[in-house]
Each structure stands twice: as C-alpha cells, then as structure tokens.
Design goal:
heterodimer, A: mainly beta, about 0% helix, B: mainly beta, 10 strands
C-alpha cells in the first residue's frame, strides 16, 4: 500500500492569511495526486488534480505543487468559506489512498 | 442533471446483511469507474474499492478485500456496496464517487450525498 502522510494535523489561521499544507507519499507517485476539501456533513470536493491542475470552478487562490513524494497545497488569502478539512489522495494505484487530513480552523 | 444519489440511512444489528445503493444519472454510467469511500465517525476518508460498470472489473483496497462486495447494474445505472455480516466497526458514512483514474484533463468528480450506516 502507498501511505499518504499529511502535516500538520491542525492549522489555526485567520481570514486573509496565507496557509500551506503538506502531503508526503511513502513511495514515488509521479504527479498522480489530488487535493480535496471537506466540510462537516458534506461530501468531499475536488480542488486540485495531477498535483497542480485546478479543478474547474475552484477559486484561483488555491494552488498546488509537487511531484514524486512531496506535495503542497497553498491558499493565498483565506476566505471564511475555506475553513474545512483538506485531504490529499494518491491515484498512482487504481484504488487510491487518502492522507489523514489537515483541519483548518479559524484562529 | 449529472449526479449520484444514494439510498437512505440504515440501522442494523451485528451479523446482519446490508446492501446500499448509488444511482447515477446524467452521464454514461458504463464509461466511468465508480467506487466507495468510508468515513468512520469523526475520522478521515478510506477508499474501499472501485468498479468499472462497462465490464464489471472490480478492485478492492487490501483493507476491504473480502469484507465487502462492490457490484454494478448497467441496466439501472446503479452501483452497490454489500456486507454479508456486519460488525459494529462498519458504522460510518459511505460515499459513492467517480474516482480520478489516469491522465484525465477533466475529472468527473461526482459524489453521492452519503449513506449513514449504524450497526448496533
């Protein structure tokens, strides 16, 4: 199994802040990585695919980079709607694996 | 409308069987993989497995192999997740979704609303 590790587990930030989340894969996955946002009681929403491609209708304040085993997701200027949990997910294997998530909370 | 609609919440006892469903509409069901993701109470997301309805090719995460059965009915455009003997640890929310597979430039990214399963 490919294990995905996200850090930190919790981030406290304020509206307008720039925040970065990190995701590491236990083995190289090329650029087969996606980022999802999930709010309580809701299904996840795809933000980024293929490590850095912005899904349609996702605001441009979200950006991502990385390849191999190290990946980051950045939100350039937090808005109130961005407080949620963020998951990375590898799809180098047909059945992917998620990281454990990073919860972004309002400071 | 392009969507996945899941069956309603279920309450079962340990040892019982259960089959939940996910009906697809608005796209060609047989052309896209569809799968199931578990979310235990207060926890993260776990991929369980996926199926290609076009030929019923089914793959499971090692953690769920032998624990559940994923199937699909092409005629009705519906995917299923089945347990033969439920455990209390199967309690959680189950989402169906169209996973990203391969080098797609336009992921479908459909998710059902989730089905809450309570085993007690």
């Amino acid at each position: 199994d490919i294990q995905m590790t996200q850090s930190p587990s919790i981030v406290s930030a304020s509206v307008g802040d720039r925040v970065t989340f990190t995701c590491r894969a236990s083995q190289t996955i090329g650029r087969w990585l996606a980022w999802y946002q999930q709010k309580p009681g809701k299904a996840p929403k795809l933000l980024i695919f293929k490590a850095s491609s912005l899904q349609r209708d996702v605001p441009s304040r979200f950006s991502a980079s990385g390849s191999g085993t190290e990946f980051t997701l950045t939100v350039s200027s937090l808005e109130p709607d961005d407080f949620a949990t963020y998951y990375c997910q590898q799809y180098d294997t047909l059945v992917g694996t998620f990281g454990q998530g990073t919860r972004l909370e309002n400071k | 409308e392009v969507q996945l609609v899941q069956s309603g919440a279920e309450v079962r006892k340990p040892g019982e069987t259960l089959k939940i469903s996910c009906k697809a509409s608005g796209y060609t069901f047989t052309n896209y993989w569809i799968g199931w993701v578990r979310q235990m109470p207060g926890k993260g997301l776990d991929w369980m497995g996926i199926i290609y309805p076009g030929d019923s090719d089914t793959r499971y995460s090692p953690s769920f192999q032998g624990q559940v059965t994923i199937s699909a009915d092409k005629s009705s455009g519906t995917a299923y997740l089945q347990w033969d003997s439920l455990k209390a640890s199967d309690s959680g929310i189950y989402f169906c979704t169209t996973p990203i597979v391969g080098d797609t430039t336009r992921p479908l990214d459909l998710w059902g609303q989730g089905t809450v399963v309570t085993v007690s």
